[in-house]
């Protein structure tokens, strides 16, 4: 029988269990995961606000089978806000995170990874089945995501060069890109934009991927075939589908060691070497936040964010 501990977070009552359970091979425990999400909540919650959260849960820890979870699980507390999203297979009741207690509850479920789409509920049309994902009432994205997935043979230095080329191309179109690690081996660029129909953002991202591939065929590839990615960086434009999601800044990843999707400065990107690592531990991320603040705050869309321009030819 699992040991359960009653606690309170900002006036919300929670029941936590198995805090000493190792979730990673290095001994990083469930209790440490909960503590990290509790400590990082102040800077992470604004990037989860008003967004549907897809969770990757690891019932037996990283390295064991995991599963993606979109619907709110049985027993979801009443104080956790849920929002219905209409899909072709029926409505999905997504959970959201508005307060520290929400993150603690998710971590207690062994939801190591938190992923969100590029749109917010506030910019989406509500139908009878919830937020509408398709058609003329599709959500309006406030972020363009450029996911740079390194194929075999691509080093962090190569990824940095690809990120700088992509960001330069975007800058020539009047868009500012902000870099972060995926928490694993890749880099992701986030571009704040005025609310734009998700299908238009997807089309722009696809055109950008094709442009980068045509201009730099020895560095980029835009095909999803894994056999074509050797020695190349895959520009995963499909991350901009309304139904897709991307790992949220400051989320832990369920790898062999706990690593966090970490916002970077462009100086840090430019300094990457072939033997650099793109993995950052939760403890180091907390230290970075203490020293640098929330680097991801600058990429949050505002009323002055640019409109999406015509795609590159």
From TrEMBL:
Domain of life: Bacteria
CDD domains per the UniProt record, alphabetical: LigD_Pol_like
Record-linked InterPro entries: LigD_pol_dom, NHEJ_LigD
A UniProt-annotated Pfam family: LigD_Prim-Pol
Entry-linked NCBIfam families: ligD_pol
Protein name: Uncharacterized protein
Native species: Tessaracoccus flavus
